[in-house]
Structures are given as C-alpha cells and as structure tokens.
Design brief:
The chain has helices at 12-24, 35-44, 61-70, 88-96, 109-123, 157-168, 176-184, 193-206; strands spanning 4-8, 28-32, 49-53, 79-83, 101-104, 132-134, 137-140, 145-148, 151-153, 173-175, 215-218, 222-225. By secondary structure, it is an alpha/beta fold. It folds into two domains: 4-125, Response regulator (Rossmann fold), CATH 3.40.50; 132-225, Arc Repressor Mutant, subunit A. Helix 6 packs across helix 7 (176-184). Bound molecules: calcium ion (CA).
C-alpha cells in the first residue's frame, strides 16, 4: 500500500537518496529540510510515517519527536529517527522522546524499507497489504477482496477500510471518534452518526456469510469486532 512518508533531513544528498528509494518502492515522499518545514507539512496533512533526522538546523529531531507525541492529532504517527549517533544513551533518548525505531547512518535503502515495513505492521497493520483472516472471514488488501467462508462479499470502499481496521484491531472497543480518525482520516469533519451508517452497510454486506455477528455494538461506547461472537 503506498504510504505518504515525510523525510525530515537537512543533508540534500541523503534526502534525495531516501526519496528516490521510497518512490521506487511505490511510496510518496514528502520532504522537509528542517523542523519548521516538517511541522508545516504535518499541519497541512498527516503523513503515514515520519523519517526524522536527529541533527537538524534549529530545533533537533528529538524536539520534533517530543512535540509530535504531545499533540493528540499527531500522537500516533509512526516515527523512525535517522541518526549518526549509535551510542546506547542516544538510542534511549530517541526512544524516550517518542521515536518508534531508529536507524544509524549510513544505512542501506533495503534496511530502511525493511524497518518501515516492520514498523507499519506493528503500528498500523491496516496500512499494510498483509492478508487478514478472522473466523473464516478473509480480507485481501492487495486484491481488494473480501470473502466469508469462501463466498465473495461486495463492500464499498469505506466499508472495506472499516473492516480492514476492525480485523487488524480485533477484540478492542473503538469509539466513533477513534473510527473517524483511523478510517476516515485527518481533517475530516463528518458527524459521528456517519460511522453508524457505514457500520450498518458493512453488517449488511457481511450478512451473506453470517459474519455480521462479528461486529458488536458496545452500548454507550462504540463498536468491537470480535471472533468470539
Ligand atoms: Ca542532519
């Protein structure tokens, strides 16, 4: 799945090398040379992941990481720190500031892409193309197909994203606000009852194989996808 990846790196040659490799892997590369540019890009639109250089002119990458983690809107963006520092103490500082992972320069593009993939699996499995299966319900993100006990099920694009999120975050209760943030995305101003409309459509689409029962309404809170239903 193509990701919007923000590269925050002041060394032009390194920024270019990373961007070329990300684009070669099918991602979209956004570029910033310092923390101000990075924050401006993030204000306009949330990237799916940030590659954050530690040593930047002005505010350091460490400061930017802390800032992103302290704001509800940007709190859950996956961050990989790029650093020339490899001392244990520095790694600890980076992780404490809120980075999910760090990679020490110089690194190979292959290593970087592997780290990105691993981090997305951990932090945002609904953004990967891994096939998911729960209780006979199978969702294939690459082919954009859903089947229940072998029966092909037809879902609209929003219901597909909603189901993908549910299946990769099963057994947890999600509020309507959380679902809006995770499935509808950033800067989207829609009413919470829109969620209910799409849940209803999703349940209808899953009825054919009886998998509609996997989506539970949790009174006063939201919804839960559960294999235990
Ligand atoms: Ca630098």
């Amino acid at each position: 799945m193509p990701l919007d990846i923000l590269i925050v790196e002041d060394e032009a040659a390194i920024q270019e090398l990373i961007a070329v490799n990300l684009e070669g892997a099918g991602h979209r590369a956004l570029r910033a040379a310092d923390s101000e540019q990075a924050l401006a890009i993030i204000r306009a639109s949330l990237p799916d992941l940030v590659l954050l250089d530690w040593m930047l002119p002005g505010r350091s990458g460490l400061t930017v990481a802390r800032q992103l983690r302290s704001d509800a809107r940007t709190r859950s963006i996956p961050i990989i720190m790029l650093t020339a520092k490899s001392a244990e103490q520095d790694k600890v500082l980076g992780l404490e500031a809120g980075a999910d992972d760090y990679i020490t320069k110089p690194f190979s593009p292959r290593e970087l892409l592997a780290r990105i993939k691993a981090l997305m699996r951990r932090r945002a499995p609904q953004m990967t193309e891994d096939l998911v299966e729960v209780a006979g319900l199978r969702l294939d993100p690459a082919a954009h197909r859903v089947s229940g006990n072998g029966l092909r099920l037809d879902l609209g694009p929003t219901e597909f994203r909603l189901l993908h999120f549910f299946m990769t975050h099963a057994e947890r209760v999600h509020t309507r606000t959380q679902l809006l943030d995770q499935v509808w995305g950033d800067h989207v101003f829609v009413e919470e009852r829109t969620v209910d409309v799409h849940i209803r459509r999703l349940r209808q689409a899953l009825e054919a194989s009886g998998h509609d029962a996997l989506i539970e309404t949790v009174r006063g809170t939201g919804y839960r996808f559960t294999a235990a239903a």
